[in-house]
Amino acid sequence: MSTAPDSPRPAFAFIAFDAAGQPHLKAQRCTSCGATYADSERIACGRCGGRANVLEAFTPAREGTLHSAVIVRRGFPGIEVPFVSAVVDLDGGPTLKGTLRNVGLDPADIAPGLRVQVRFDDALGRRDKEGNAYVAHYFEPLSA
Ligand SMILES: [Zn+2]
To answer: Is 6 helix (H, G, I), strand (E, B) or coil?
Structure first.
């Protein structure tokens, strides 16, 4: 864990901070068909086409199940490899992509069905113009 920034910024639109400055995920759920979305500014449901206030905001669970993952061994300059890029079905939705940490780099270590939890941490040391850090979400195996 890096040093705590004074005014952290969300690295993604689906990350928000509570009054105490603690990060959490935010999402939308369709009250008509139940579809969930991590992008929280939709005006219509992509599944049923519902509009006009059919989408309600909610805070997703911080635990979920690994849907799929790949081991990334080549990256842009400045991106440390290898890392594991994962797609996770959060309990109750939505499905979210992110980096899976604290796992081995054997395909057996990242098999679909692995239970994971969401953690928030500094986003690779990046800073905005005012020097504020960015906070990103990461997945880690759920402790037994
Ligand atoms: Zn819908």
So the answer is: coil
Measure the CA–CA gap between 43 and 21, rounded to whole angstroms. Answer: 28
Pairing mode, strands 115-127 and 83-90 = unpaired
pLDDT digits (tens, 9 = 90+) for 61-89: 999 999 999 999 998 998 899 999 999 99
Instruction: Identify the residue whose tokens are 């005006």.
Output: 43
Q: What is the pLDDT of residue 3?
A: 46
Is 8:120 a contact under the CB 8 Å cutoff?
Answer: no
The alpha carbon of 45 and the centre of ligand 1 are apart by a number of angstroms equal to 5
Model confidence pLDDT, tens digit, residues 21-50: 999 999 999 999 999 999 768 899 999 999
Q: Which residues surround ligand 1, an ion (CB under 5 A)?
A: 30, 32-33, 35, 45, 47-48, 50
- Residues 19 and 140: their CA atoms lie apart, in Å, by 25
Compute the distance between CA of residue 102 and CA of residue 13 in angstroms, rounded to an integer.
25
